[in-house]
Automatic annotation (TrEMBL):
Compartmental location: Cell membrane
Transmembrane segments: 24-42
Record's keyword terms, sorted: Cell membrane, Chaperone, Membrane, Transmembrane, Transmembrane helix
Coiled coil: none
InterPro entries per the UniProt record, alphabetical: SecYEG/CpoB_TPR (IPR018704), TPR-like_helical_dom_sf (IPR011990), YfgM (IPR026039)
Signal peptide: none
Record-level Gene Ontology MF annotations: protein-containing complex binding
Gene Ontology cellular-component terms listed: plasma membrane
Superkingdom as given in the UniProt entry: Bacteria
A family per Pfam: TPR_21
Organism of origin: Sodalis praecaptivus
Domain called Ancillary SecYEG translocon subunit/Cell division coordinator CpoB TPR: residue spans: 15-206
Topological relation to the membrane, as annotated: Single-pass type II membrane protein
Name the UniProt record assigns to this protein: Ancillary SecYEG translocon subunit
Length: 207
């Protein structure tokens, strides 16, 4: 492991790590969880009142599954604008992912904030806030990201919340707070893949 002679060098190396790998490692984890929750939500909440919305959502969701072209983005935008419900929120999440992958984090944030207003489902709100915090970090809005994380109340998301909080504190330069957050993430039943990532971050703080 590379050794840094000063705190500034260590901090800058950690900044570079999160800039270079943040989307693939951190956002990727949250997006993957979000896709799974979205799929389960569709199966568990498919009722008569939402039949029309869910039927229309399926092709829109398929269009956002890969690298969507402009026609798919336009169709998804139209659906999100017309559906002020959980399916609209899931579509806004999909649009946010598309723009985040293109590096347009301002647009991604706009879609995530729209998604928050489209659902009252607690776990879906947690996913949205986790993604929003990551997008805010990409825009160097550390205080905004930390405030967003405080809005995640569901205990099942603690590991991801604290992992993200640790990243925010690293960018802020508060390594003590970052360490505390990472350790809390490890104590919160994080999946093995996330545990490995968090331990690597802790090791980098110690080097």
């Amino acid at each position: 492991m590379e050794v840094y002679s000063t705190d500034n060098e260590q901090r800058e190396a950690l900044r570079r790590f999160f800039v270079d790998n943040g989307k693939a490692l951190a956002i990727g984890v949250v997006l993957g969880v979000g896709a799974l929750v979205g799929w389960r939500y569709w199966h568990n909440h498919h009722n008569d009142a939402m039949t029309a919305a869910s039927s229309a959502w399926q092709p829109v969701n398929t269009g956002l599954a890969g690298q969507a072209g402009q026609p798919q983005l336009d169709a998804a935008q139209h659906f999100a604008d017309a559906n002020d419900n959980n399916y609209g929120a899931l579509t806004s999440l999909g649009l946010a992912r598309q723009y985040a992958e293109r590096g347009d984090f301002a647009a991604a944030q706009t879609h995530l904030q729209k998604a928050l207003g489209q659902t009252r489902e607690a776990n879906l709100q947690s996913i949205i806030n986790l993604r929003l915090a990551r997008v805010q970090l990409q825009q160097n809005n550390v205080d905004g990201a930390l405030k967003t994380l405080d809005g995640v109340k569901e205990k099942g998301w603690t590991a991801l919340v604290e992992d993200t909080r640790g990243d925010a504190q690293v960018v802020k330069g508060d390594h003590q707070a970052a360490r505390a957050a990472y350790e809390k993430a490890l104590q919160s039943g994080a999946p093995q893949a996330l545990q490995a990532l968090v331990r690597m971050k802790l090791n980098n703080l110690s080097s």
